[in-house]
Design brief:
Number of helices: 6
CATH architecture of the largest domain: Alpha-Beta Barrel
Radius of gyration: 20 Å
Structural class: alpha+beta
Distance between the termini: 28 Å
Number of strands: 10
Number of domains: 2
Order of helices and strands: HEHEEEEEEEHHHHEE
CATH topology of the largest domain: N-terminal domain of MutM-like DNA repair proteins
């Protein structure tokens, strides 16, 4: 699933192509994805000018004066800005023609994505319970420490809880815990405030670096122009089962366990 850096890469790419342009026409090639496609996308979006392109967690919002198009890429979704004459791909489900003469296409083979509508001056129900953004100032070690008291859930699952903090998915949670030297299996309530400060800093640093590098190359992810991200070339533990730890002087090997039905990778020596 595309994680926060991939979605932020998509946001930046979309902004360059759609900001300030008017929606001329919307063409839907199916009625639903993970949820039914909102009727407002056909009835209200045409004729509106896009005045902002935002990201909230892993959702993209294209703001207009009457409301926002709310997009989620799901497991395999991607957005491309193309010439409208380009032949449709099999799983191009939504086309949005713009006043620039280009077309925005939502491609989703597995159909786990979403195309929804957020009315003007409201917040969609899917966004209301979300935690803070990890790159904002209100996310820090003190916040994580306070939220974790009494929690017996594994710290990796705690970090991936969207009610605690948004957008820290499986890959980046594993990488941040490695950078902070924290065993992902440790109970969240047993991690000290000092170590949470290290973890929050690691989350911010890794996400910023991944965004700068264009996100992590996953099998199904492409940015709006079709270019993959490159952060996967620099992963320290994710997907490296049995390989030596990359930390200087550490003799450990990367191990793999399952936490919350997700594969988790860590060094059994330097993460504790």
């Amino acid at each position: 699933m595309p994680e926060l850096p991939e979605v932020e890469t998509a946001r930046a790419g979309l902004q360059a192509h759609v900001l300030g342009h008017r929606v001329e026409r919307v063409r839907l090639h199916r009625a639903d994805l993970r949820f039914p496609i909102a009727a407002e996308i056909s009835s209200l979006l045409p004729g509106q000018r896009i005045h902002a392109v935002r990201r909230r967690a892993k959702y993209l919002l294209l703001d207009t004066s009457v409301g926002s198009l709310l997009l989620h890429l799901g497991m395999s979704g991607s957005l491309r800005v193309v010439e409208p004459t380009l032949a449709l791909k099999k799983h191009d489900h939504i086309e949005i023609d713009l006043s620039s003469g280009l077309s925005l296409r939502f491609h989703d083979p597995r159909r786990f994505g979403a195309c929804l509508w957020q009315a003007f001056d409201t917040e969609h129900a899917l966004l209301t319970a979300l935690g803070p953004e990890p790159l904002n100032n209100d996310f820090d070690g003190g916040y994580l420490y306070a939220r974790s008291r009494g929690r017996q859930v594994a710290v990796k699952n705690f970090l991936m809880d969207q009610r605690v903090v948004v957008g820290v998915g499986n890959i980046y949670a594993a990488e941040a815990l490695f950078a902070a030297g924290i065993d992902p299996r440790r109970a969240a309530g047993e991690v000290s405030k000092t170590r949470y400060a290290s973890l929050a800093s690691a989350v911010k640093a890794i996400l910023r670096h991944a965004i700068a590098r264009g996100g992590t190359t996953l099998r199904d992810f492409l940015d709006p122009t079709g270019n993959p991200g490159y952060f996967a070339l620099e992963l320290s533990v994710y997907g490296r089962t049995g390989q030596p730890c990359v930390k200087s002087g550490c003799t450990g090997l990367v191990q793999k366990v399952t936490l919350g039905q997700r594969s988790s990778f860590f060094c059994g020596v330097c993460q504790r």
